[in-house]
Amino acid sequence: MPTTVPAYGAEAAERLASMAAVTASDTALRRFLHGLPGVDAVGLQARAATLGTRSIKTTAKAYAIDLAISMIDLTTLEGADTPGKVRALCAKGIHPDPTDRGVPRVAAICVYPDMVATAKEALTGSGIHVASVATAFPSGRAALPVKLADTRDAVAAGADEIDMVIDRGAFLSGRYLEVFEEIKQVKGACRRDGGTSAHLKVIFETGELQTYDNVRRASWLAMLAGADFIKTSTGKVAVNATPPVTLLMLEAVRDFRDAVGVQVGVKPAGGIRTTKDAIKYLVMVNETLGEEWLTPDWFRFGASSLLNDLLMQRQKLSTGRYSGPDYVTVD
Questions:
Q1: What is the pLDDT of residues 14-34, one digit of tens each?
Q2: What is the spatial distance between Cα 46 and Cα 53, in angstroms, rounded to a whole number?
Q3: Rounded Cα distance, 301 and 281, in Å
Q4: Active site residues
Q5: At what angle do helices 212-224 and 243-260 cross, to 10 degrees?
């Protein structure tokens, strides 16, 4: 189950402080972000494709399926959400397969802020986190005071994690410092009265960022501003998580830790529907970052429909046959 990400150590805090000049002005931040190495698009895509061909045998596949289940942020983000639907989703998160109590629990249940209290109550004692989208999800089109109020309301209701969306219009217009300051202020709004904080996942909506270079810049921008996780997408647009974009973000968190000593998680979201797809992403994490990142603390899947396929593949491995379509619930 997810645990609390440790606070920055003295060395990491010192390294981060040394980066302060980078964010001292819009000019300095632009110079830094545009000074990052350019992305070799052909090489990135080829590397992602190669990693996707790795063969996973039966024993390793069984382990990968359980690991993937434990990394899922099970999500309902619809206008028609009701307390009953949220409670049902929480029950599924606790016992994904009621016929097999050996199936791991999911990492988190993700809901809109007004459903946080319902999810928190339903998950009492389970160890599953409550995540909430905020900051005018999915468009991000709201004034900053509204976004901060949205975040504070979710945290006050009991959210353990906040998934915010960046202002893509500001980013694509080159107003990097504006985006940086917004992330920092939302990070501040994640603090609780007792001194602890909800973890902050920063969503880029990579399908709207146009270039791989922009994805790399957004990754560094969010991490410099204090993101605990960087996330590809809202799942609400045509193009969501892709292997090349996720690989690029994995490389960014690796390079960021090498530079400042701070570890940041990655969450691909949207479009990951099959066990085969999930395993490809796990291979990518292992080959790029190593086993240290292969936990729900540092890698998540934002892919609710994925859970059903994982459960059916898991049963196939244990019984030798596929289940009928009524084996899993339709969320």
A1: 777 777 889 999 999 999 999
A2: 11
A3: 9
A4: 163, 231, 267
A5: 40
